[in-house]
């Protein structure tokens, strides 16, 4: 055993631990499609039940702790909480700190990955498209403003009044995501942000960037990018936006730390 203690037939460059809401069916396949050779994804699920309410997000945050304890036993190299709204409605900093404490490896949540991605692209004014209900959209606008970004517009589908509607986010066609991006774009927006890890986006990112002439950040694209760069991997991944093909430098937790104004608040 000593001779092969460090051997990995898969994940020999890095193992990503991913925690997703139990209803999410998009995050895992998009991560796998983006993964370069030698990188693997190992998933835990956090139970998500009922309509979209603040209480449902806090219940899921408790389930994330169990999933993190399980993932720690898989010897992952970085762990990500794959839920944008869940890491905005609940405290991003608290979630990340708890993940790190439980897994003993670098951690990130999708909301933090989005912040790091927007900063890496030099974004200032962001047009936002989401599938969320209004209170989540309002929370997201406040979150982005607290981190120093101006939200020029918000286009939300208002899905989440029932659990079936929440599941339905995973059925929104990528072609409709493209139309959402066009609907939310404004002349003064320098970046498009498409939010939600259960929204299929990676097949239309490049087309949106080409047609609008602006960088596009999506939840799964930015979270996968952040995991790679936190591992110190500089792979250039083409065809899914400037973030993955141009922003190659490693990142740390400081990349998504709140600005001084947010800390004071």
Automatic annotation (TrEMBL):
UniProt-recorded name of the protein: Decarboxylase
Segments crossing the lipid bilayer: none
Gene3D superfamilies (alphabetical): 3.40.50.12500
Organism: Plastoroseomonas hellenica
Origin: domain of life: Bacteria
InterPro entries: Iso_Racemase_Enz_sf, MaiA/AMDase
Pfam families: Amdase
